[in-house]
Amino acid sequence: MKSQRGKAESDLKEILVEKAGKKNYIPPSVKEDYKKALFREFKKFLGEKVEEEKSEFLDVVILGPGCYSCDKVERDVMAVLSETGIKAGLNHITDPKLMAQYGVVITPTLVINGKVKSKGILPSKSMIKKWLEEEKG
Predict the structure, then answer these.
(1) Which of 21, 55, 80, 132 sits in a 20 to 30 Å window from 87, CA-based?
(2) CA–CA dist 31, 70 (Å, integer)
(3) According to CATH, what is the number of the domain 58-136?
(4) pLDDT tens digits, 72-94
């Protein structure tokens, strides 16, 4: 039974990536990753319990109106990411309505993977590096 399920699962993964590939370019080098991700999302859609995977990319958000301090935090984060090779998505949110969704009013605020790491200060590059490495695991 297990081998049948495994076979059916691999067939379904192939079908999902084939269908997605008709409307989206999927580089051959990441095809297996797509199969796994599409199958996981399909299981979620069916209401099956799915264990969330830890992303290889960190989610880094800087909250601030675009002042000198906020821009400096952004530059320092980019420098640390470049130096360490840590993979991350970086967003600088300047819209007060979007910033309010984080429940933060003091800027600049640095958020990594949904966790507020600093607010109202300019953290050192070494502190930023420490936080990024902690979140990377």
Answers:
(1) 21
(2) 38
(3) 3.40.30.10
(4) 999 999 999 999 999 888 999 99
